[in-house]
């Protein structure tokens, strides 16, 4: 296997897991929007593409590259509008979503079928 394919696959998986953990820790303990907020649930949809990512399915990587943009949008909006800890956590969310996006695009490009 091409080492770049392995690197992009592992990068996608690591970025998704880091984004998942960040969303739960952020909204449950570090800086919830308000006490008792259930906004940590936003992390659960990140589990949907996990089986396809673990199996290396190219189609999953293709739609994940667009799917992760929802977390990018939230990160940008909250880093723009929030202050303090929440702003820094939103910047980390933005970085992680860009990381996942880049890794998925690289994986999808490197695993495309070659023309005959």
Automatic annotation (TrEMBL):
List the transmembrane segments. 12-31, 61-80, 86-108
The UniProt entry, under InterPro entries, shows: DUF2069_membrane (IPR018643)
Q: Name one Pfam family in it.
A: DUF2069
Q: Which domain of life is it from?
A: Bacteria
Q: Which keywords accompany this UniProt record?
A: Membrane, Transmembrane, Transmembrane helix
Q: What is this protein called?
A: DUF2069 domain-containing protein
Give the organism the record lists: Chitinimonas viridis
């Amino acid at each position: 296997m091409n080492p770049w394919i392995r690197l992009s696959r592992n990068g996608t998986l690591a970025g998704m897991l880091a984004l998942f953990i960040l969303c739960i820790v952020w909204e449950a303990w570090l800086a919830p929007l308000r006490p008792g907020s259930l906004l940590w649930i936003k992390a659960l949809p990140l589990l949907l593409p996990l089986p396809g990512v673990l199996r290396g399915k190219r189609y999953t990587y293709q739609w994940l590259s667009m799917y992760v943009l929802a977390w990018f949008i939230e990160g940008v909006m909250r880093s723009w509008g929030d202050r303090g800890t929440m702003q820094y956590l939103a910047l980390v969310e933005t970085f992680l979503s860009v990381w996942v996006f880049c890794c998925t695009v690289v994986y999808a490009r490197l695993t495309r079928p070659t023309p005959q």
